[in-house]
Predict the structure.
Amino acid sequence: MTKRERVTVDVTELPTIVFGSRGLLWWGTWGFAVAEGMTLFLSIATYFYLRRNFQTYPPLGYPQPDWFAPTIGMAIFLATCIPAYMLKKSAVRLDKDAATRWLVILSVCALVLCGVRTIDFYALRVLWMTSAYGSIQWVLLGFHGSLLVIEAAEVIGTAVLFIKGPVLPRHFPDACDIGNYWYFLVLSWLPIWFIVYIGPRIW
Amino acid sequence: MTAPPLVIGETVPVDVGAEREQMERVWGSKRGLWGWITTTNHKEIGKRYITTAFIFFLLGGIEAAMMRAQLSRPENSLIGPDKYNQIFTMHGTTMMFLFAVPIMEALGLYFVPLMVGTRNVAFPRLNAFGYWLFLIGGSFLYVQFFLNTGPDVGWFAYVPLSGPAFGPGKRADTWAQTITFTEIVAIVGAIELIVTVFKQRAVGMSLNRIPIFVWAMLVTAFMIMFAMPAVATASMYLALDRLVGTHFFNPAEGGDVLLWQHMFWFFGHPEVYIIFLPATGLVSTMLPAFTRRPVFGYPAMVLALISVAFMAFGLWVHHMFATGIPQLAASFFTATSTMIAIPTGVQIFCWLATIWSGRPRFATPMLFIMGFIFLFVIGGVTGVMIASVPFDLQVHDTFFIVAHFHYVLVGGAVFPLFGAFYYWFPKVTGRMLSERIGKWNFWLFFIGMNMTFFPMHWLGFYGMPRRVYTYLASTGWGPLNLLSSIGALVIASSVITFLVNVVVSLRGGAVAGDNPWDADTLEWATTSPPPPYNFLHLPVVQGRSALWDEGDERQVTVGTSTERREVLLTTPLDAQPDSRESHPHDSVWPLAMALAIGVLFITAIFTPLALPIGGALALIAFAGWAWPTSQDVESEKSDEKISLEGA
Amino acid sequence: MCSRFAEPAARAGIVVLVVLALAACSRERRTFHDSPPAASVAAESAKAVRSDSGVSRDGPYGNNAWALSQGKQLFSAFNCVGCHSHGGGGMGPPLMDSAWIYGFEPANIYATIANGRPNGMPAFKSRITPQQTWELVAYVRSMSGQGSKAARTNRSDEMEVRPAEAQTKTEKPVLVTPPPTVTPPAQEGHP
Amino acid sequence: MSALCACALSLNGCGLDVHRTPAGAEGQQPHIVLQTALPPGGTGAQIAAAATAPEDGQWIRPAKDFASSRFSGLNEITTSNVAQLKPAWTFPTGVLRGQEAAPIVVGHMMYVVTAYPNLLYAFDLSKPGASLKWMYNPKPATSSQGEACCDVVNRGASYADGKIIYATLDNNVVAVDAESGKEVWRTKVGDINKGETMTMAPLIVKDRVLVGNSGGEMGVRGWIKGLDLKTGAVKWTAMHTGPDSVVLIGPSFKPFYKKDQGTDLGVKTWPGTTWQIGGGGMWGWISYDPALDLIFYGSSNPGPWNPEQRPGDNKWTSTFFARRPETGEAIWAYQMNPHDLHDYDGVNESILLDIPWHGSKRGILVHPDRNGYMYALDRATGEVLYANPYVHITSSDSVSLKTGELALNPTKEPKMGKIVRDVCPAAPGGKDWQPSAFSPRTGLMYVPHQNLCMDEQPTAVSYISGTPYVGMDVRMKPGMGGNRGFVTAWNPVTGKPVWRISEPFPVWSGALATAGDVVFYGTMEGWFKAVDARTGAPLWKYKTTSGIIGQPVAFRGPDGKEYVAVMSGVGGWSGAIVAGGLDPRDSSAALGFVGAMRDLPRVTPKGGTLYVFSLR
């Protein structure tokens, strides 16, 4: 520690709350989304890999999955992008009341979607231990379902924090990133919904 | 007491004691056990990580020694077949999942923040959580091993051997859950590294200026993000097959055993490079210090790293040549397997050029680098040989393969790692390792290594299969095996020499000072060992060799808070200052979360109740982790830039 | 720093480890050596009685995963499957259910396999070694959920014809009388 | 949403394998599909003239006559009055296993053989309530129960020469004096320690008692024997595998098709000595044409089921034979299922008919085979006139009339390490043992049969004497349409079905046609049904105490009235789940039949009661 130091940069005036890719959490969120997305991608790859082992899909003796309720669920899922978008907007405005409101709405949506997911499982009309067809159907649903449940816990927890707890400035970028992650959740559901419920009718 | 604010252009006064004290207060951890379990300091955790991984290296080494003891003569009855199965599986699993990948990430988590000139990794609590989970996962494997429930299905756990029908009991479950632990650990580590490298670099350290080790860790982290999910998914399928009766690997019900091999090697081959790339990064970063010149061909090196990373995902099938894949696919994967020698060769020639054009100084780290180049080239050449299908079919599952990948992994990763131990030991502990013992260490290792593994090439040609616990005298494999076992003894003595060196040097080694090797990277710009906040004033970087390019004066930044933990965020490409972000305090919740997840994974082997119980525990830990403490509220108040009603 | 609580903690830890080790031992032990067939059934059964009173009431291998998997292979290799199917029965009675005709204790089942039974069960003692017989006993009992669940498998690498052993309900064994020899009943005429 | 809820409920309600079990069998009503119109005068087919029996009100052999028509000339019970049919008397036999036997009526006596222990009851029909006159117990070895593949059934006795003759499970052929119930002779013809059992009903032709063995699942070697009616001595034995000398193939053997020609095919078409344990028993029905002096029957499946362990044609299993009853000499043979892949035994009945064929009269036999084709063969030569599917078939594509060869579907061939799915018909075939009836009044055959498919997986199996030799895991399931049984009215002239009744369960009972244009059959739920012989319209049904898998017969009582008798008592292969108390969770149980019959225990208990019906 002998070297002379000269100050050439002063960062005092830099903001301490930033949104989007300027903040750390945005990167972390998408980091996890990429890893989880890779897992989903590989599960989907597994689906098509195993598909080759069956002459017909679903295999003979298995009923088609019900598509009606899951498709409605998918529509609800898409619709929840609106509260997620509104949450992001209000968080960027640092509007605590609005953010709280949208967090509560998103919490309700998350709970509803958890319920919808239960129906989705019934709509498969197959159990995981009957054949590889059932196994991959359940895993695709279950894997995305576990992401949904974890995210639901996060949304609800954040909502509780916004209602009850000490809300700190850094919670606004957090809330914003919840919205980002929600987009990932919805986006990743689309291919899964398609190959699980619509796919067996096509291939 | 805060120091008077510095302004641009001012020279920092020599007496910064008060400022140091203040920073120590803000960034330091509590003393005692509580401080130890709650700390989120990347160096504390990195040290632990390295030590824990090294202990696993020793355990794996003991297992290797046991195998060599058993194989030292024909029809030896030292270890029975059942135990032998567990031991070779434990050896492979330990070395790959509990030593090689973690220790590389651990080095990254320790040194990357220092090398890029920041105060901590991006998500310090996640970092602590990662370590605890690693410790729990590794301990779980060994507790199970001592309970006779160690995995016995090989480190790549091929189905159907590892499946529910032929892998009775809980042994393969132990393997599958260990994998689940380690892949989570690896992925969180990778995310921390990526974000740290992209967002927390020192001002002026644009992407084309970061040390090659940091490049290597960045590339590795990306590889982890794409490779680890494959083994995670596969081990999840395996666990589901074993625990709830899914049919992923049951051909009778539409499953497929090759699915396992594809998914495992889609991870498994990149895994080799996940271990090897950081090692090359270590070499490229150490080399300038011992050749007195910047590494030759920086852009070529970086491009080689990146192209290896891409190609690593395109050659997994060469592990599966014996499965009867279509000829066209075999040809393709032969081509890619041969092709990856090109970027690897580029790196080797860059190193040679660096040494050739520099003024080499053969200190112990340099010896290990030279050893690395020699051994890795041998391993690389045999690698190109087995990339060819007919040759591979001949030596598949023989000791030739064992020889090949030990040359690659021991030569390619362990040698640089030992060099790195000698090189960075002074930075971490403040004391130099003994050079005299170090030379013993190196030569014993080098000789032992060749003695152990070179004969295995011949054993492979003679047809000795892997994973047999004994062989008949009439095979004639006895003498070479004995030679190999003696070599293992030499390696063991080398590792003991290293341990002696560590113990001796920790007590009475030469005091290192900030920069004993006169090296060029930023970690040498701070004290040895570094303070909890790493740098009193965050450095500003002028060139690729930060310390060599700065001249007499070091340029620094001011303006990050001294009242609370705060890191400076810069732009991802050019590293221009962008924002200041508050940094979390120490917390016990990462440990609690790791315990909850540990309970979840371990009990999942025995009962589906694990899900609700572990889930509830994890939820509690999650709430504790995220809920702001009074300390958080306090430190946030010191930030006057923003208020809730603001905007 | 922590010597005050280290000792009781260590002691508790040792107890836990010992318990775990015992559980894991009986589940994971693997016995490869074997003695030839036709050892005395009485002596072997006596061993079971000993093990009943001593180590485990599930017989020597009732909690042993390896033995169960071996037993399962033997169950096919010795054509048990032909009569008893995969536990559901056929020519022979089902083995997944709670009903036992000739006794459900390990020693009873050993005797059944070794000596045969009058209603069609052949004697296997000249073909199957005592250890293999015990492995079969363990597997047969596991079919109705007897013995350690942790030692049983969750599926086979075969066509899924029934819930796997680990997913089978644990039945409470009951003794039933063998099918009675028929005596002609009195005629019930309808006018 | 309601569909969703229903789905959820069904998933909750049925547990593990809900998707493989047909829904609500009990609620499903049989329905009739009229396929082609029946000419008012009938199809023109007639019972082979020489093989008919004059209607004397008796029923002295299970199939009524040598042509196996199961046609009763009694016409008191008609389509218009059958609805008044009531039980006249019943008799619980005390044996609660599958009752497949036909009651035998000789004069004023009725004789009934039960399942193991093969009791023989004799009733005096002239006494009020048909009192039990005597009971004969052959005391078969108890261990024989463990050797019978598919329940311990017995298919009945035959009467000749003052004796009631039948086979016991432990391979004894017994002759009992019809008056006194005393054993006249007893001949042991097989060995249970080799897995042999006997379940078939003997056919008595002239002074020969023709019997065969069961045990295709136990690695037996199949045979048919001719015993002396007077003494029980074995006069000839024809093996179904082995060299020509023991198959009784001699110079007069003239198979119609090239594929069945050659010497010692019973050895050459097997690997090594596996023909010695190659199955090919004979446990079904024999017909006899006095005009040609030929008996006709089929041999059973080769063993083991796993076809990879016996490459080759596996002659003479699953083969139709014509032999001389006196000497056993083979006259012609036609192998329906060379290298049988799916347990397609050839033992089903053949009905001897004379039909108009391309403008002239042709003497044929009609044989509904397990493989799903209805074969019409020329009785004299063995030429296939047609072979048309009577159920949904996926295991093969067609039968060549030119070469007689069965064109197999290669995707349904069992291979080790593979599972073959959706093989139709399943192992019990399009039709199993349950015999059809023929009415000369309509010219139609009434075929009770099943509609099942299966998944199968071969496994390596080694031969252990006296234990099963199967090597196949099987899981059966309902076939196309979801119902598991049919009664099909078949036009033997055109080779087409006329009408078809769907039943939820396999129709495992025999059929009976009467001159009152009523067809009787029983169902596994326990209904005894009468339908219109021309249209299949349901006329009457009666619920017995257990599922019916027996053979209904009609006779004239000493009081001159027409009676219809049938045994009720579920069992057999299809009913083994109830008779053997098998576990419905294992769909491979009973060689895979349990997979398709899980709901049967909810529908019927065990039973063993003789029912006799009459108008009153």
User: Anything to note?
Assistant: The radius of gyration of chain C is 21 Å. Helices of chain C lie at 3-28, 41-53, 65-77, 80-84, 106-115, 130-143.
